[in-house]
Amino acid sequence: MRASRRVVVPGEELGVIEEYVPLSNTYVEDGVIRAKVVGELRADALRHEVEVLEARRASLPREGETVYAVVTGMRDVIGYLDIFYNEDTGLEYVPPYRGVIHISEISSSRVRSVSEIFGYGDVVRARVISSKPPFLLSTKGFEYGIVFARCPRCTTPLRKRGLWLYCYACKKVYRRRKVSRLYLVR
Length: 186
Known about the structure:
By secondary structure, this protein is mainly beta. It folds into 2 domains: 4-54, CATH 2.40.50.100; 66-174, CATH 2.40.50.140. The protein contains no helices and 16 strands. The chain has strands spanning 4-8, 13-16, 21-22, 26-29, 32-35, 39-44, 49-54, 66-74, 78-86, 91-102, 123-130, 135-138, 145-148, 159-161, 164-167, 172-174. It has a 5-stranded mixed barrel. The termini are far apart.
């Protein structure tokens, strides 16, 4: 006979003490076994045991981790990004977390405006430097920066040509972009 599985919430009735032995993440109230946490119910009818395996909590990006984000807004000195993937943990964030990048954290060289370095919809590989929402990000370093971008004129994917990005459809070169050495389209 197989063990039954289903998702339960705190306080949900799992059985009675005459039928099952309560194990982890359960409690007994007036002879009724209830769930302590949200998770998967494991009830083994052969052994007469019941337990709840706690659902994995969403892991927030931590300081020092590498994340991927999409540029969604810009001001002169601040860029707003939606963090959708954590490279270190392999987690996708749905819905995405809000990230912020200050102009001083974009590059080691002087930057006048966030809009000259990033464009709307650019996919950026960044390092988390503050683990409290909104998450502060940094793209300092050769491996951090834009990993995918589209031409703002014709939306053709930009290709990396040397240190710059180039649109083969418009024949336009984008020189002042912070391009990662891990850029996807060559």
